[in-house]
Amino acid sequence: MPWYDPLLYPFALIYDEVTKIRNKKFDTGQKKSVSFTVPTIVVGNLNLGGSGKTPMVEFLIDMFQDEHDVATLSRGYGRKTKGFLLAKPELGPSEMGDEPYQIYFKFGNKVTVAVGEKRVLAIPKILLEKPKTDLIILDDAFQHRYVKGDFYILLTTFQKPFFTDKVLPLGTLRENAKGAIRADVIIVTKTPVNAGEEIKKEFRNSIKKITDTKVIFAGIRYGEPYPINPNQVHSFSKVVLVSGIANDKLFIEEAQRYFQVLEIFSFGDHHNYTVKDIEKISESVKKHQDCMVLTTEKDSVKLKNKAFRLYLSEIPIFALPIKIHMDKEDSHHLKQRIKSVIKEKAYFGEV
Predict the structure, then answer these.
(1) Domain presence at residue 94
(2) What is the span of the domain harbouring residue 275?
(3) Cα Rg for the chain, rounded, in angstroms?
(4) Is residue 191 within 8 Å of 218, Cβ to Cβ?
(5) GO molecular function, one example (predicted)?
(6) In a structure prediction context, what are the per-residue pLDDT tens digits for the chain, which is 351 residues long?
(7) What is the CATH number of the domain that holds 215?
(8) 29 is in an annotated binding site
(9) Is 52 one of the annotated binding-site residues?
(10) Looking at the structure, do residues 38 and 142 belong to the same domain, yes or no?
């Protein structure tokens, strides 16, 4: 059992009560949720930190981009801009935020990528700018109840499931675990390959005490590292790791399986790299020789910053791609559930 500071209990009780009141106001209609004509999928979590939201959004894009004109919308956490923005070539991570820019960098014009703190105002702007849009994926919007989504996907990690956590500031929950009731499906992310049926049954039973929502287990799979500079195609067996994500434990473990890790630069989530950071990374690579920088996809787009070219132009930098892995049966179930929501909305003349 994790230890909790007893001095934080009063603050957690107050926070819990405030969020309960807020949710009740939405549930009773005292606070209004707006529904839109275009079907919306909400991806989110109950806790702070990395639950794999961006890989899940990318998983859904892969699932539906051939059948629909997909748009993604997030607040663009960590960006230096405000208001509504559509991703375009001249904008970078500082204008769009790390994750939206990563999605745009990966999918380009195949999807519409937008950011906006006020999603109720941003969605009409997406539809005005991109009128062919017929499916919107809301990233990190489980608590953003001003928009009434059509299908809610709640993510929780295998390593720290929401039913073992506490509300802030005791734990990392943004709201009471009972908020999981709003989910149409709960996906346990980062599930190890060797997770047996017994432990999965325990997870399902723990979640069932809160809600009867369908539970799906999904793992992550790393792909082959690729160069962020097309001119640097030669890879090395020795690496200097660089990451600025919520939890880099799995990233480090994966690197250690296949590479000789010489040094690790582990920054905080959404880290804004400085020239000083880049100088240290560059010095490390030159010191060790015959090695490369291995980083996450999210960090790789920030390392492409023009301000860093002088330091990184001659250093091989490779990104380690990550994808959601889901059993075919579960993937089919998820797709059919979402398709039924899309069809139902179309049937009632809303799209």
Answers:
(1) no
(2) 226-320
(3) 21
(4) yes
(5) lipid-A 4'-kinase activity
(6) 566 778 888 999 999 999 999 999 999 999 999 999 999 999 999 998 778 999 999 999 999 999 999 999 999 888 889 999 999 999 988 899 989 999 998 998 899 999 999 999 999 999 999 999 999 999 999 999 999 999 999 999 999 999 999 999 999 999 999 999 999 999 999 999 999 999 999 999 999 999 999 999 999 999 999 998 877 777 899 999 999 988 899 999 999 999 999 999 999 888 989 999 999 999 999 999 899 999 999 999 889 887 888 888 888 999 999 999 999 999 999 999 999 999 988 766 544
(7) 3.40.50
(8) no
(9) yes
(10) yes
The answer as to whether 90 is a domain residue is no
127 is in an annotated binding site: no
Same domain, 33 and 150: yes
- Strand residues in the chain grouped as ranges (E): 40-45, 70-74, 85-86, 112-115, 135-139, 151-157, 185-189, 214-222, 226-227, 238-243, 260-266, 292-296, 317-320, 322-326
pTM, two decimal places? 0.90
What's at 178, amino acid-wise? K
- 54 is annotated as contributing to ligand binding: yes
DSSP element (H, E) containing 229:
none
* 334 in a labelled binding site: no
Asked, for residue 341, whether it belongs to a domain, the answer is yes
- Residue 166 marked ligand-binding: no
Report the interhelical angle of 98-107 vs 53-64 (nearest 10°): 30
Same domain, 49 and 140: yes
Q: Please tell me whether residues 171 and 40 are part of one structural domain.
A: yes
State the DSSP string of 100-142.
HHHHHHHHGGGSEEEE-S-HHHHHHHHHHH-TT--EEEEET-S
